[in-house]
Amino acid sequence: MAPAIAIICNGPCGLTLAHLLEYKGIDYVVYERDESKQSTGTGPSLNIRPETRQRALREGGLFDTFQKYARYEDTVFTRTDKSRKQLFQIGRGRDTPEINLQQLRQILLDAIPKDKIR
């Protein structure tokens, strides 16, 4: 029998862990402080790095769903002067797309059975 696992977290890390445990058939429960899926509002954007968050989404079978909301154009930051002459640019070629926190949270919540969240 697997040990009981309690996840006390309302962020994407706790929800990702819950989904990975669900995907692997390991029992757990999530203790969520928010009253509803919409409680956190829109939130900031998160960059999804290949070696961490992208890997977790791939291993849990959610990468294709993530791709529907990913913003790859937000990986490049360009600074210009008043005449729009480019001063510098960083991030070109990086594989770190961004996603809105609420969208990522919804993807993860949809992948976790409702009875696992308290």
Automatic annotation (TrEMBL):
The record's GO molecular-function terms, alphabetically, read: FAD binding; monooxygenase activity
Q: Which Pfam families match?
A: FAD_binding_3 (PF01494)
State the SUPFAM superfamilies in the record: FAD/NAD(P)-binding domain
Q: Which UniProt keywords apply?
A: FAD, Flavoprotein, Monooxygenase, Oxidoreductase
Query: What residues does the FAD-binding domain cover?
Result: 5-85
User: InterPro entries this protein is in?
Assistant: FAD-bd, FAD/NAD-bd_sf
> What is the name of the protein in this document?
FAD-binding domain-containing protein
